[in-house]
Structure formats: structure tokens, C-alpha cells
Amino acid sequence: MARSVLGRGTARERVLEAAMALFGEHGVNGTSLQMIAARLGVGKAAVYYQFRSKEDLVLAVVEPIYDDMARLVTIAEALSTAEARRDVVVSGLIEMCVRHRRLAAVLYGDPAVDSLVQSRPELAATVEQFTALVTGGNLDTHGRVILAMIVNGIYTAAIDPNLADISDADLLQSLQAGTRHLIKML
């Protein structure tokens, strides 16, 4: 029997790392389980041993972001004003995107991830709650455009290869300062 080159206890993490790298290079739909196995130097069965399906693997890759979103929703919903809820969620979004810079690059705008999230009621509900907290539900057209600029700008700055040389701490500080300035325009 062939022996796996995946180290005991690290196999799952190595599969997740390889998947995230390949998803970043080729997108989720452009990455096969065979590609992940080849990157690791193992057979596809070794990947299936860790994850029952590609969908399970994708969910495991994106899980940290959705766990963070769910925590932010819980914290924000405990606050008394829509403005305070929005501030906590937007600030949390900045921290989340900076902390998960590589993962944000995989998630942001990938149609396969969007489709998978919409197919999972618990994830779709988290995104819906998160979005409602960000918008506050009562923004006019001007406010909605400004808010879209803020949220999309946060994601884009976190994944922009031209900003890869900026430390997480400096990026976090710059995004927080810029966001505070733009939120005043709402």
C-alpha cells in the first residue's frame, strides 16, 4: 500500500492550504480535487479521505470568514442603535478582511463561493443579517452608494496585490481611518 506524504495531524491543514492557494490562482470552479492532490504529491483519494466532496472542502476553506461574520452579527445585534451596530460590523469587517487577506482574495466575488453560500441557509442568513446591519435598513441612494464604496473598498484593499507589501497593522489602521472619514458622509 502506498504511503501518504501528508503528515499525520497536518493532512487536513495541508489540503486546506493547497486548496486556498489553487482557488486563488484558478478560482473555485477552475480548481479540481486532482489539482489539489497533485499540488500535495498525493492521490486524489488522500484528499477525499479528509473531505467527502469538493463542496465540503470549499466550505472548510471559507468557514473562518463566516464564523467571524456570525460573531460580528451577534455582537452588533446586542447594541441599541443602528449607527452603533453598523460601526461595529464595518470595523469588524475591516479586521476580518485584514486578518484573512489571502482568504478574502479567494472569497471576494467568486461565483462558486457565492452560489455555495446561497445554497446553505445558515450561511445565507449570516450574510443577510450582516448586510442588514451594515446598511441599517434606511439609507437613501447616496448612502447606499457610499456604503458600497466602503465595503467594496475594504475587500479590494485587503486583496490588492499592489498593497501586499503593507503590513497588516498599517493596512488595518489606514482602512479604519479612511472608513471613519467615509462613514461621516452617510
TrEMBL record:
Domain HTH tetR-type intervals: 9-69
Protein name: Helix-turn-helix domain-containing protein
Ranges annotated as spanning the membrane: none
Residues annotated to bind DNA: 32-51
SUPFAM superfamilies given in the database record: Homeodomain-like
Record key words, sorted: DNA-binding, Transcription, Transcription regulation
Pfam family, one: TetR_N
Organism for this UniProt entry: [Mycobacterium] wendilense
Entries under InterPro entries matching the protein: Homeodomain-like_sf, HTH-type_TetR-like_transc_reg, HTH_TetR
